[in-house]
Task: inverse folding
């Protein structure tokens, strides 16, 4: 029996419904028996499967539709952090999590693979045991293979072992780079960042409203991300800072460039900010609302490009 004192993060490689049930149900039940909280965010078919298999313990587990949970990597990290904090506030000393990532379309695979790696740092020392199921019947082999690099532990059937292929988040996020969002639509705005952020926000809001770029609250999300990224460039960048906006396209794509070296920490924006400091808050907040956000430094130019649809 393992008592959780700090983060345990394992990949469960399964190839049948029985393999999933035989691994997950005892895992959740043991956590409940030890007085911990238990959560499962899995596919809808697996929700039905696990609910049926949990028997009288079913109401003690919080079940989540993974398609509604895994929307954007960093907002999902924030959701897990809030869930963990809530469980601890309710008197639980640990949380067992089953998290079946929705890797989505192929172009999103790097984003979610990076997320799986970042968990190891974002929740370092947390009293959580996270098991991430990987369905070998449905997922591409490349995604299944990546699980051994992003999880310190691997489960296959009844076998639990350390992953010899595991790579630290600092190294993994440097090696597996998130591709830049493709630009669609026309260049709508190009403006040097010399004035206040407020004046740039007014300009972008007017253009978005006139052009009907986004609906609902997404204009506010655009302005929030823009504010955080620009402030980050002003605070930490060098030389000329420029804002570029392409629209309407399939999404509004923004890019902020400066002549600095960019962030040295590959995990910037993935770690929940320390409550005692505002450091790292800007990109963390921006990642919450963006469909995709990429930081790149090439040829002496740092580019932060993000998309909102």
Result:
């Amino acid at each position: 029996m393992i008592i959780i004192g700090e983060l345990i993060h394992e990949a469960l490689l399964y190839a049948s419904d029985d393999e999933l049930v035989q691994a997950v149900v005892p895992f959740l039940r043991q956590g409940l028996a030890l007085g911990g909280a238990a959560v499962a965010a899995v596919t809808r078919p697996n929700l039905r499967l696990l609910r049926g298999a949990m028997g009288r313990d079913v109401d003690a587990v919080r079940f989540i539709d993974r398609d509604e949970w895994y929307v954007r990597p960093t907002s999902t990290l924030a959701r897990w952090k809030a869930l963990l904090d809530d469980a601890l506030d309710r008197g639980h000393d640990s949380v067992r999590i089953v998290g079946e990532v929705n890797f989505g379309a192929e172009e999103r695979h790097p984003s979610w693979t990076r997320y799986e790696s970042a968990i190891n740092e974002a929740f370092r020392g947390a009293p959580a045991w996270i098991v991430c199921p990987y369905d070998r019947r449905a997922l591409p082999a490349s995604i299944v293979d990546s699980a051994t690099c992003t999880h310190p532990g691997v489960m296959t059937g009844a076998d639990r072992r350390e992953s010899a292929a595991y790579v630290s988040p600092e190294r993994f996020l440097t090696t597996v780079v998130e591709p830049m969002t493709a630009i669609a639509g026309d260049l709508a705005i190009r403006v040097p960042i010399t004035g206040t952020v407020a004046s740039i926000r007014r300009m972008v809001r007017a253009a978005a409203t006139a052009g009907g770029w986004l609906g609902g609250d997404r204009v506010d999300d655009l302005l929030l991300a823009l504010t955080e990224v620009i402030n980050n460039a002003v605070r930490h960048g060098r030389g000329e800072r420029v804002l570029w906006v392409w629209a309407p396209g399939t999404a509004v794509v923004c890019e902020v460039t400066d002549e600095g070296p960019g962030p040295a920490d590959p995990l910037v924006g993935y770690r929940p900010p320390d409550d005692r400091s505002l450091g790292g808050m800007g990109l963390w907040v921006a990642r919450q609302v963006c469909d995709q956000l990429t930081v790149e430094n090439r040829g002496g130019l740092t580019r932060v490009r993000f998309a909102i649809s």
Notes: The mean pLDDT is 93.
